[in-house]
């Protein structure tokens, strides 16, 4: 009947292998799976990440850092984002301290060109007020001609503890807009926990 005796040292691995097959239905798993291969599959199953985005344009006043407040989430496997409490933040939940990679992207609707520049800068623990001392990293681009500009940024690994939060700040040297996009879900901010 295929039952596994409780004394079988491979019982746990075969049980996990069965779960892998159930989750990855399109993945053909044949033969015995080594413990390393099972752990690799298991890390695929238990991804710990969140991506928030905004569906409404955000106005930007010249030379005034502006915090993006998100109103939607594409995925959130750990409870990083709240629509009612500090929706501009992705906050590390209790028990999920670790190394994270962060991504951010914004589309600017530049109508100026020439000496125009745009900036995106994720910040850590800025408590809802853009604070240059808390910038994790920054990307700034100058536009030679008036054009729509997409800025994308991926951080180096950063260590975050429970309660730490990240937010996305945008800026420009002219009045502009952080444009909401339907297909690419911009502006957006995401956190991925390494070794989830």
Explain this structure.
By secondary structure, this protein is mostly beta strands. The model is unreliable at 1-45 (pLDDT under 50). The longest helix is centred in the first third of the chain and has 13 residues, at 11-23. The chain has two helices and 13 strands, in the order ααβββββββββββββ. The protein starts with 10 loop residues before the first helix and ends with a strand. The protein is globular. The strands form two sheets. Strands 1, 2, 4, 6, 9, 10, 12 and 13 form an eight-stranded antiparallel β-sheet that branches. Strands 3, 5, 7, 8 and 11 form a five-stranded antiparallel β-sheet that branches. Helices cover 12% and strands 36% of the residues. The protein has helices at residues 11-23, 35-45, and strands spanning 49-53, 58-60, 66-67, 72-76, 90-91, 98-109, 116-124, 139-143, 148-154, 158-160, 165-172, 176-179, 188-193.
How are the elements arranged and paired?
Layout: H1 11-23, H2 35-45, E1 49-53, E2 58-60, E3 66-67, E4 72-76, E5 90-91, E6 98-109, E7 116-124, E8 139-143, E9 148-154, E10 158-160, E11 165-172, E12 176-179, E13 188-193
Antiparallel strand pairs: 1-4, 1-13, 2-12, 3-11, 5-11, 6-9, 6-10, 6-12, 6-13, 7-8, 7-11
């Amino acid at each position: 009947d295929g039952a596994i005796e409780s004394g079988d040292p491979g019982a746990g691995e075969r049980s996990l292998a069965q779960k892998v097959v159930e989750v990855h239905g399109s993945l053909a798993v044949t033969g015995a799976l080594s413990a390393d291969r099972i752990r690799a599959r298991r890390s695929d199953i238990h991804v710990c990440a969140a991506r928030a985005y905004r569906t409404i344009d955000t106005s930007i006043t010249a030379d005034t850092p502006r915090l993006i407040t998100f109103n939607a989430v594409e995925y959130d496997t750990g409870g990083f984002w709240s629509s009612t409490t500090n929706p501009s933040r992705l906050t590390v939940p209790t028990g999920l301290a670790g190394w994270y990679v962060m991504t951010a992207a914004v589309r600017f609707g530049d109508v100026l060109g020439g000496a125009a520049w745009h900036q995106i800068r994720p910040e850590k623990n800025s408590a809802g007020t853009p604070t240059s001392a808390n910038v994790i990293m920054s990307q700034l681009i100058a536009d030679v001609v008036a054009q729509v500009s997409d800025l994308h940024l991926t951080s180096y690994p950063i260590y975050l503890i429970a309660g730490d939060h990240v937010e996305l700040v945008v800026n420009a040297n002219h009045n502009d807009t952080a444009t909401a996009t339907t297909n690419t879900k911009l502006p957006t901010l995401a956190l991925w926990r390494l070794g989830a």
